[in-house]
Specification:
The chain has 9 helices and 7 strands. By secondary structure, it is of the alpha/beta class. It has a single domain, classed as Rossmann fold (3-Layer(aba) Sandwich), CATH 3.40.50.970. Strands 2-1-3-4-6-5-7 form a 7-stranded mixed β-sheet, sandwiched between helices. Helix 7 links the parallel strand 5 and strand 6. Helix 1 packs across helix 7 and helix 3 crosses helix 4. The radius of gyration is 17 Å and the shape is globular. The N and C termini lie far apart (41 Å).
Amino acid sequence: MKKIFTRPKSLKDTPFHYCPGCGHSIIHRLVAEVIDELNIRERTIGVPPAGCAVLAYNYFDVDMAEAPHGRAAAVATGIKRVLPDRIVFTYQGDGDIAAIGTAEIIHAANRGERITAIFVNNAVYGMTGGQMAPTTILGQVTTTSPGGRVSLRDGNPLDLSLMLGLAAGSVYIERTSVSSPKGILRTKKAIRKAFEVQLDDKGFSLVEILSPCPTNWKMNPTEAVHWIDETMVKFFPPQVIKDVA
């Protein structure tokens, strides 16, 4: 019998530590599949900072360089400039890239750094206990907004991808989700294109991925994916935000 589905070579054979229903495991697989299909495994360097994906080096079977919290884009920029033949990607959550890491990612995009950012948006600080994040949507209950996020007090959700689309050096920005099979297929296609932009030396690329966090949302996995499709997309609609590739 012909084997048509197997673990990507760029993904180690080890159990994930992520919570049941978390989207990180799906996204890890998609990134690994793209790396395999583009045949860039020996050239790829991943840069995860602090956050739920801080242990990503345990899963990706490529070279990895850990970054301080929020500094993945800066670390990736340094690696890419020293080793321009490598394919360098960051893997960042919203509490990292859209909070402490905003300066690094905005200026990397504006300079057109030849790196690719994988931005996992679950609208909450996942690893540290479910606090309100810059991407927490209005009305969303978190440990630090028990009555729900209020714009007058807390500000509005930060649409980082839309901001990065305005940066002169950004070439490809797309927002997708992993809340459905259709969304997963679209996400893989977007990740592949983002890597291809880097392979073609065109500039900065980023894929934002709406991802479920059942544990901190206090939902079961089914409720979490429905919440993305019914509520979260109203604030963060999946779409191609910029494509000048």
